[in-house]
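Hi all, long-time lurker, first post. I run a small reading group and we've been trying to get comfortable going from sequence to structure in the token notation. Rather than ask abstract questions, I figured I'd post a concrete chain and ask someone more experienced to write out its structure so we can walk through it together at our next meeting. Sequence below, copied exactly:
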Amino acid sequence: MGINRRVIARLDIKGPNLVKGIHLEGLRVLGKPEQFARYYYQAGVDEMMYVDVVASLYNRNSIHEIVTRTAREIFIPLTVAGGIRTIDDIRKILRSGADKVSINTTAIKNPEILREASRTFGSSTIVVAIEAIKQQDGRYFAYTDNGREHTGIEVLKWAKKVEELGAGEIVITSVDREGTGLGFDIELTKMVSDAVSIPVIAHGGAGCMEDIKEVINEGNADAVAVASMLHYEFISRNGSTGDYKKEGNIEFLKSGRSFSRITSSTLPDIKQYLHNQNIHCRYNRITNQSNV
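-- Answer (accepted) --
Happy to help. Here is the structure in token form:
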């Protein structure tokens, strides 16, 4: 019996809204995150990840209320990222209902916070997000602020360092692939997965179920974080969930279109597909609903 591979719904949040971009930019309003989260929970997602995508840019953290509302309705692990700068920030997010926190910018600026945080809250609570961009010479470097700020730190060295400092998990994002539907960066994911002993979550590029299979089988990912495939399926099934005229870029939401490179999929379909490919995953609530 192999280990269970997790399917994680990633929800990028700007202000009160769920948003989605390409290469972590050009954010488009899709709806209210709590409604998407409730739908994914009922469909059998293993975990959820809330990311305040502008928190570090604007030096703020305003996601607590959304986390609190969501935690009242879902009972699976919830990871929160964005604008985490101090141990007290971590404590407040955990108290608001999160099970884990994901840190990027602050970890780069002050790596020792990982050691202190893992000792204070436990390694399983501390996730490090690595935003990677491939350079012309083939090397991968870590970036911060949604791929805007170059750190000069090589991804492989950084991944090994965060494990040494006590992080319990790594989310590796290919900024080059994120939101494109072109598939995960298998080379990047495998490089990180093979270098560390802690779980690695692949993120960035999922366009179809085959992409998920490949990053698990070939990239050795322990889990996958999926956004567009799930979000577009939700919108096609439920439509717009509110009035967003004053809340940013809504042209995509108004159009009723999907992104042509991405095949929208339900969570039961994804899990059934993985099961058919001999990839172990948790079925729990969806077993009786979908014959998975």
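A couple of things your group might point at:
The first helix runs from residue 33 to 43.
The radius of gyration is 18 Å.
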